[in-house]
Amino acid sequence: MLERPRLLLDDAGHEVVDCSERGIRFRPADGPVPEHGATVQGTLVFRRSGTVDVEGAVVRVQDGEVAVHLAEPGVPFSVIWAEQRWLRGRYPDHPLS
Predict the structure, then answer these.
(1) Distance (Å, whole) CA 68 – CA 34
(2) Which pLDDT score is estimated for 41?
(3) How far is CA 46 from CA 30, 49, 60, 74, 77, in A?
(4) What's the maximum distance between 2 C-alpha atoms anywhere in the chain?
(5) pLDDT band (50, 70, 90) for residue 96
(6) pLDDT digits 0-9 by tens, 22-70
(7) Which of 44, 52, 57, 49 is closest to 9 using CA atoms?
(8) Is the CB of residue 74 less than 8 Å from the CB of residue 21?
(9) Whole-number mean pLDDT of the chain?
(10) Contact call for residues 83 and 24 (beta carbons, < 8 A)
(11) Most CB contacts within 10 A, which of 27, 29, 46, 94?
(12) 44 dihedral zone (left: phi>0; alpha: psi -120 to 50; beta)
């Protein structure tokens, strides 16, 4: 989906399928998949709110997705809120709006 954020790790862009202030879940692009317990460091790129540098530990690798618990400060609430407002305005009939 075009509106989803991207996670840039080691020059590869990964589709983020879930994002909160303290965690992300992404689908790895082609290449190596981080293992459970590994530390990842990268940049979240949002469609409307710019970029946020993040770091965290892989807590789950399952069904082709990787879940990461983010270290402080994580993703600012203001960024999450701005993205949600924009998505709800763009897709007012979506069941999660």
Answers:
(1) 10
(2) 97
(3) 21, 5, 23, 14, 13
(4) 39
(5) low
(6) 999 999 988 788 999 999 999 999 988 899 999 999 999 999 999 999 9
(7) 44
(8) yes
(9) 90
(10) no
(11) 46
(12) beta
